[in-house]
Design a protein that fits this description.
This protein is α/β, with parallel strands linked by helices and about 450 residues long. It has 12 helices and 21 strands. The chain folds into 3 domains: about 200 residues, 3-Layer(bba) Sandwich (FAD/NAD(P)-binding domain), CATH 3.50.50.60; about 110 residues, FAD/NAD(P)-binding domain; about 100 residues, FAD/NAD-linked reductase, C-terminal dimerisation domain (Enolase-like, domain 1). Strands 1, 2, 3, 4, 5, 6 and 16 form a 7-stranded mixed sheet that branches. Strands 17-18-21-20-19 form a 5-stranded antiparallel sheet, sandwiched between helices.
Length: about 450
């Protein structure tokens, strides 16, 4: 019989923490969890889930407009923000209950409140101290706003999900997933939207053709893109409007400023100063391939380690951790060919290497690319274009990367990601019979390389 109260104590019940806790319990461990904010973490409460619901909502304005080309009468849609907000909140509450049920059904003891590490084997929650053989830190990340005059007047994505009223004008600052997605959400809901980014082109780290295509399409939709701009200060006027001053000297008057310039690991006030856990400069917890920190019995996974900040990655990491620690089956996380999507409009789906990365590791590559107006828009009247791209190692014929901008890109790339994990070749793509008429068939009909 162990001398500890628990075999595992998990700090944070986001997607990774919940999966690690309940799977470890299923393998026979005595497990406890603690959370002071949201049951289900960022993804369920202020991330993937509400964002996708908002993306769905924002699509309908275009659907109304495009329906006329298919014979539907013209209509002026009447959008009610409060209805969307209330329905979203109800769905999140339902999911919170499901996550709590998952822990209860697994026999996990849950504590509501902030957990702080006292030492390598003790945790304090609301004045109570418990002992544990292992500690798993799964506290995720948190949005950060840089320091500048007037930054108290901005919001982050956290607050965007609970706005009392939808603004008439919005400025989104940033160039990553969240910034690009919220620019599309606001615009689709009828908000006059500007997206400001300090570099020359957003979605840094994505394939160049994705970045350029999304930029072109957002511009067509009427979103104002302000590249190479930095906010210098923001002043709030008596009527509540905001005047944003940029370092370039120009200004922007708006009703709301959403900052989406980055997230940092959520490690504040969890007691890391009491243990020997090494961290990077941004606070990220340093781990080995078994998720072990420099303190042998303390582990970490998910966004708090600042590797791939994706919910499915945290879940798979949790599966590897639980199997290795409590099932006796060592599993190492494979970070190669992790697919991802950006729910901008049109969507982005991507898996594998970008063209730039492929050129760095291969002596010769072939690029297959297609840009086209999808079948739907031959009648809708929209000038929106899709882009699809395959990157191939010329020597081995192995597909190194697949990238797409277009409707349901994430759904399409998910299937291709399986093939990528299996080492698919371009010849196998070519031998696959397409489904007609679909957008996805383009991936198996591209025969001529456009560049080498």
């Amino acid at each position: 019989m162990t001398a500890y109260d628990y075999d595992l104590f998990v700090i944070g019940v986001g997607s990774g923490g919940v999966r690690a806790a309940r799977m470890s319990a299923a393998y026979g461990a005595r497990v406890a969890t603690a959370e002071e904010k949201f049951m289900g973490g960022t993804c369920v409460n202020v991330g993937c889930v509400p964002k996708k619901l908002f993306v769905y909502a924002s699509h309908f304005s275009e659907e109304y407009e495009q329906a006329q080309g298919f014979g539907w009468d013209a209509a002026t849609p009447d959008f009610d923000w409060q209805t969307l907000l209330e329905n979203k909140n109800a769905e999140i509450k339902r999911l919170n209950g499901i996550y709590k049920g998952l822990l209860d059904n697994a026999g996990v003891t849950h504590y509501d409140g902030r957990a702080r590490i006292v030492d390598a084997h003790h945790i304090e929650i609301s004045g109570e101290i418990v002992s544990t053989e292992r500690i798993l830190i799964a506290t995720g990340g948190w949005p950060v706003v840089p320091d500048f005059p007037g930054n108290e007047n901005v919001i982050t994505s956290n607050e965007a999900f609970f706005l009392e009223d939808l603004p008439k004008r919005a400025l989104v600052v940033g160039g990553g997933y969240i910034a690009v997605e919220f620019a599309g959400i606001f615009h689709g809901l009828g908000v006059q939207t500007t997206l400001s980014y300090r570099r020359e082109l957003f979605l840094r780290g994505f394939d160049i053709d994705i970045r350029q295509t999304v930029s072109d399409e957002l511009t067509k939709k009427g979103i104002h893109l302000a590249y190479e701009t930095n906010v210098e200060r923001i002043e709030k006027r008596e009527d509540g409007t905001l005047l944003v001053h940029f370092t370039t000297g120009h200004t922007c008057e708006t009703d709301l400023v959403l900052y989406a310039t980055g997230r940092i690991p959520a490690v504040h006030d969890i007691g890391l100063e009491n243990v020997n856990v090494e961290q990077r400069d941004n606070g990220a917890i340093i781990i080995d391939e078994e998720f072990r920190t420099s303190e042998p019995n303390i582990f970490a996974l998910g966004d708090v380690t600042d590797r791939l900040q994706l919910t499915p990655v945290a879940i798979e990491e949790a599966m590897c951790f639980a199997s290795s620690q409590f099932l006796g089956e060592r599993r190492v996380m494979d970070y190669d060919n992790v697919a991802t999507a950006v729910f901008c409009q049109p969507n982005v789906g991507t898996v594998g290497l970008t063209e730039e990365q492929a050129r760095e590791v291969c002596s010769a590559i072939d690029i297959y690319r297609s840009s086209f107006r999808p079948m739907k828009h031959t009648l809708s009247g929209s000038e929106e274009r899709f882009m699809m791209k395959i990157i191939v190692d010329r020597e081995t014929d192995k597909v190194l990367g697949v990238h797409m901008v277009g409707s349901e890109a994430g759904e399409i790339i998910q299937g291709i990601a399986i093939a990528m994990k299996m080492g698919v070749t371009k010849t196998q793509f070519d031998a696959t019979v397409g489904i007609h008429p679909t957008t996805a068939e383009e991936f198996v009909t591209m025969r001529e390389a456009v560049s080498v």
